[in-house]
Each structure stands twice: as C-alpha cells, then as structure tokens.
Amino acid sequence: MPDTHVKPGWTGRFFEDFAVGDIYKHVLGRTVTATDNAWFTLLTQNTAPLHFDVNYASQTQFGRPLVNSCFTIALVTGQTVSDISQNVFANLGWDEVRMPHPLFEGDTVYSESEVVDKRESKSRPDVGVLTVKTIGYNQNGDIIISFRRTLLVYRRGQGPSGRYRPEPKNAA
C-alpha cells in the first residue's frame, strides 16, 4: 500500500511551464568568501594576481581582490537552476555577458531572470528552446552581471526526470 504521507519534492519547470515575460526572483542568495575566490581561480589556472594576491590587489584602484568573473557567471547561473533549468537537456550559450560593477569577497549575490523568448525545437520534439535574461546583484542592489542564456528544456513527460531515482530497498 502506498504511503499517503509521502509528498513529492520540487522537480522543476518544463518547457510548457514558461511564458515570455515571466520573471523569476531566485530564492537563494550566496555570500562569496575569499576561499571560494582563491580555489576557483587556482582550479581554473587563472594566474591573474588580482583574484588571489591581497597585497597585489591592494595596489589597484579596487584596493582589494576582485572575485573571478568566471566564478560570478557560474554562481549566478547556478542560482537560476531550480527555477529555470532543473530540467535542462543542454545549454546552448551565454550571450551579451556584461559585468558593470565589481564583485568582491564578502559580497552576497542574488539573482533574477526574465523569459525573453520561447520556441519549439525544430530538430528535437522532446525539448523546447528557451532564452532568459538574467541579472545578478549584490547586497546593495548593484548589478554585478547580466547575460542572456539560451537552453534546451525538456517537455513534460520527456527526459530522465522522475525515472532516475531508485526506491529504497526494504531493511531487514
């Protein structure tokens, strides 16, 4: 007999759930630490001391390390996943990436996205093409990044969603 107390978790939106003009204010904020910045910078072999050498950075117009811009785009994209791309088939690209205000260690990042285009896929009937414009901003409301992202999103009932998770075995 099925357990009537089990409630399904959030499985994300499918292509049919989006409409041009929808705006999603992504729920999670994230404070960036010096460790985040240094590890990401060194893991990606970025040798610019502006990101990991406090003494060097103190001698620039910023006076302190800047957060690696590739970390910034990765973080803000990640913040959008639960609302936009939980059911992604593939990202097709990021366009019009702009970083109008620096992001510093200790800043907290928030983001929101607007659906700017939605169309059927011409080659894949199981997905649709979605384009969103996303902004990321700090705790003061300063926009630190904006970009357009185009992705393929599964249609409802397509893709691995709901089929990949096994049920637990009975304990003896």
TrEMBL record:
GO terms for molecular function: lyase activity. Transmembrane segments: none annotated. It comes from the Bacteria. SUPFAM superfamilies: Thioesterase/thiol ester dehydrase-isomerase (SSF54637). Pfam families: MC_hydratase (PF19315). Gene3D superfamilies: Hotdog Thioesterase. This is MaoC family dehydratase.
